Description:
Layout: H1 19-37, H2 42-54, H3 65-71, H4 78-88, H5 91-102, H6 128-133, H7 141-152, H8 161-167, H9 172-183, H10 186-189, H11 194-207, H12 216-230, H13 235-238, H14 241-253, H15 263-268, H16 272-276, H17 282-295, H18 308-323, H19 330-342, H20 351-366, H21 374-397, H22 413-436, H23 442-458, H24 463-466
Helix pairs in contact: 1-2, 9-11, 9-12, 9-14, 11-17, 12-14, 12-20, 14-18, 17-18, 19-20, 19-22, 20-22, 22-23
Amino acid sequence: MTLEKFGVAEKKNLVFTSPVEEAIQILSGLMQKQIEADVSDPVFLQLKHAIELLGHGKDLFKPRLDHQLSKGNLDIDYDTQRWITDLVQSDSHLLQMSRAGSRANSKFGSTFFRRPVAKRRVASSEMMAGEMMVPDPSHSVDEAEQVRDLIASLEEWDWDIFEAVKLTKGKPLFLVTLTLFHRFDLISKFDLDQDVLKSFLTAVESGYLNNSYHNSYHGADVTRTLHYFLCRGELADHMSDIELLAAIVAAAVHDIDHPGLNNNFLVATADEKAVVYNDISVLENHHCAFAFKLLSNPGLNPFVKLPRAKYSEFRRLVIDLVLATDLKQHFAHLGEFNICAGSGKLGVKDSAGRHLLVKMALKCADVSHAAKTHKMHIEWTNRVVQEFYLQGDREREAGLKVSPFMDRRQADVPKAQIGFFDFIARPIFEAFSKALDPDMPCLQLLDENKQHWEWMMMNPEERKVSLSARKVSSGSRQPLSLSPARHAGRSTPMSTVLDCEDPSREGALELPGGSDGCGDTSMIRSSVDPDLNDNVSLRSSCGSEHEDSNGLDR
């Protein structure tokens, strides 16, 4: 006798079946029916294959790149295959390889679209952040006006981060982030203490190390680019205030205290950070922890008045967004995004879909130099190559195999860039632009930049001229401004050596123009090894007009 007879609903037990298990059960049932009908039917084989794919467990959103690479019949060069393998292989596999290597040596030591910003912007406070920057005695009236103009053009895709670096005396992240707090009226909505907010933003800017690429310039550029995306497709209009706050803070801190070395290196050398975070998203976890450690200081926490539940939501969102920037998880995030977009579950009015859009916006902003003007793209490429080669030097010193495209002795920047465009930048920008706003200029510029690298691949004799023959002004950019008290003895100084030769060897030349890497580098070439002349020697653009050896803008 059941309880229903007495008018009492029978209680059910909790079901712990995951969506994947449920999907497999449904497909298995359909397959069983197909077996009874005709085992040779193609539908049966397709159902069987679908069940096998779903059986792969936690990596359902990741493409099976390792499986394809293992077959060895792909039209991809060896170096690019190594680079992709490093992206998809497990951290435990990396650790096993590094331990084997460490036993050998233990020394670890165009026209652009303009679009109005989101409706929720507070127009009356548009110039407030600029005015806060102006009282610096070193700013002339002229410079103060330029700062205001810079803020007014914040929504333009071709916004010049390096001009912001110059005008803010090396503090672009402070300017951009404070401006966005005012634009979205977050200070009044959350009753933030402005002095404490400024102290926090100053600490964040100082928290970035003086790397050539992963510095506060990059942090500011990513934050500004995220803002551009939020103002497209009415995304910001549908975001809650706490979502906006979390997105801006996440962008500002997403690479704070970055050592200029990637996760693979930290895992391979058993770095303290890798030990603390168990080899999982080491840097991304560290960026989050570093930022919230700053907020544990009452004098640096402008969010103390947030209700406990709101602060918990803010913290959860910031952590989730920053962790999404781990390239090791790139393909999983992109796969999830494509599935949601294809199933119609991606929209600004749904909180889950909206968060996925913001996550992808931050990921796109993080690699957006590929889709910026050629001038800015070359500058960022120059900087990231410097950082790669320094890591390669450290790997060689530690007895490790030098990572793909990080060996200055076997430099091939065009090949590295084409791989980055084909496998990372193009797919994510294509998917994101289609979902958010197809009218954004990103894809057009991205393709134009890729064509430049393809041209260089087709013309190897031009590689040493194409970038290194450009004329630039000397010493026009201020070096990164650092707090005297921060990270004493731990800063990784920006290398000014761009030649492909090992800078520790006699004959390697340095860039004139100071530690910021500006200056005329057309003659940078080591005389030690003539064979290096076929390698690429990149140089800094420093905000000047770019011309190739034929006098044509590129």
